[in-house]
Amino acid sequence: MVWIPSGSCELGPVDGFWVDACPVTNQEFAAFTRETGYCPVACREAGQIQWRYPEGWDDHPVTDVSWVDAVAYAAWAGKALPTEAEWACAAHDALACDTGGAQPGGTRPVATGSPNGYGLYDVFGGVREWTADWHPIGGPVPLKVVKGGTRTGQPQPVHGHAGNIGFRCVVRTG
């Protein structure tokens, strides 16, 4: 994990916090599902009883997980999802979008590009990432904020999942 000091960014002030240097990987998420028996939303929708990922993709970011799945993993790991402001403050130094090595329509192993000034990898150019925040767009489904990736993230339904959305976690000290 990487320490992000207290400060202010475009979305307001934040207290200092720890954040994962990389998005959560398939291998890390697999440990969670094995230990807990958790079956992500996408698996349940597909009628599967066990979560799997492509062979050889241990160190790729986990994707196709819903916000609910990400929160469940974070709780298991003793962490949380970052707020939109925390994510923005941690990412503020990521000026370049390094998409090198990603397969068309796919991902690449985490930490294969250069880190930002804080030491975070894959802030931009990788997967979009869930945050703890939501935007009341209207309608019956709450929409959660996703950030990063190769473009600005649009809010997504809580139970929604996509092959380009993953997450990283934070630990707050206060």
Automatic annotation (TrEMBL):
SUPFAM superfamilies: C-type lectin-like
A molecular function (GO) term: formylglycine-generating oxidase activity
Species: Rugosimonospora africana
InterPro entries cross-referenced by the UniProt entry: CTDL_fold (IPR016187), Sulfatase_Mod_Factor_Kinase (IPR051043), SUMF_dom (IPR005532), SUMF_sf (IPR042095)
Pfam families cross-referenced by the UniProt entry: FGE-sulfatase
Record Gene3D superfamilies: paralog of FGE (formylglycine-generating enzyme)
Name used for this protein in its record: Sulfatase-modifying factor enzyme-like domain-containing protein
Domain named Sulfatase-modifying factor enzyme-like: residues: 14-92, 103-136
